[in-house]
Amino acid sequence: MKFYENNNDSIIEGIKNGDHVIIKAFYKTHLPRITRYILKNSGNLDDARDIFQDALVIVFKKIKNNRLHIDCALGTYVYGICKYLWLNRLKSMGKMEAFDADFLKLQDPTDDALDIIVKSERKSLVHKYLLKLGEGCQEILLMFFGGYSLKEIAKQKDLSEGYTRKRKFLCQKKLIELTEKDPRFKEFREVLL
Amino acid sequence: MERTQELFEKIDAYLNGKLEGYHLKSFQEALKVDEALRSEVEKYRLVQTALKDKEGIAFRKKLQNIDSELKNESANKKLTFNIPRINWKSAAVFVILISLISLVYFQNLSSGKNDLFASYYVPYPMEDLTRGEEISSHASFNKLALNYKNEDYEKVIKILENKAETAASDQLKLYLGNSYLNVNKEDKAIKVFQSIDEESAFYDDARWFLALTYVKMNKVNKAIPVLKELNAYNNLYTGKASELIKALKRNK
What we know:
The complex is a heterodimer.
Chain A: H1 8-16, H2 20-40, H3 45-64, H4 74-92, H5 102-107, H6 113-130, H7 135-145, H8 150-157, H9 161-181, H10 183-192
Helix pairs in contact in A: 1-2, 2-3, 2-4, 3-4, 3-6, 6-9, 7-9, 8-9
Chain B: H1 5-15, H2 21-33, H3 35-52, H4 54-75, H5 88-109, H6 116-120, H7 138-149, H8 153-166, H9 170-182, H10 186-194, H11 203-216, H12 220-231, H13 238-251
């Protein structure tokens, strides 16, 4: 099939390999459709971008873990995830009651799509706010939680260990503060506790 | 609960199995009775789990960069036709034609010419079409493409008319709608463009041609809301929709 949009295999391969051109083309093609849906359902442009990125991260993880089994065009599947994420967000904001998420299972009948989405959303929230921190903070936190000791980080960054320790604390504190201010966090917390 | 460096380090040691003996026992006892402490531990655990996912973070960062690039491109009004479902060459020609025609229109405006439809209308480009059930054979597809490119719209209508009413793809509907528009069957064009669902990837195209159909029929009050809708978010027609709204208001 020459028609690029419907060529799931090449898009999936592109996403898996982090191909900038393919991901950008997919992003540019499908964001308007998601935006239309969210604008018509009480959201704004930022919500649309946020939801679309969350959905793409979910798809990326599923592709990486070989857990993407869909019988439709990838764009249609991403649209379905966006719908689910947005309806879920409206629900958590008290703007709507329970909804039927069977449309997602129809697109991805073979796995635990909803469960993966809920788990990914929690992580996505932290990722979103991590990327709002300065580069220095991001680096220290990623190194620390990536397994480096504070002593190793201090050595690599040419900082004192005491300063690195303090900096890691302040960065993490800021990250938690930003994350817990998000209205979605309350809902996740109820699940976690 | 006040967040201190000491608290974070204690939680970190607890979660990583580095608390021992008395310290471990007293922390476990505190967890049993202190809900705020339990909450802090869970938040710490969430951050720890999330930040271990380096791949996910890098991918989100990539998406944010792409989003910024697209915003900049849009702000610079450089309509880059990387859209994969459109044949690159056709799309490029399509945009250049729209741009040139708009330019001619604005130049002509001062000399009194005022045909907005003619100024903005460029037929939806023929491209590599998905040949599904609707256009099942290679020959049928070639025939359709050739007739459309040769502006033999009556023949295109004949090929597509029945299919579009049943299960034709939205892309085929765009060709049918454009063909109606070119043989002055605007009412039929409107019906076809309106039949493209808002969840379709071709919805923006359909709205643009719907608006142009209204412009052609001089139904400015119907065209403007459709153009405003296109102008509300970033898509292929955002800039042109905004220009056309202004032009329509000036001509009212």
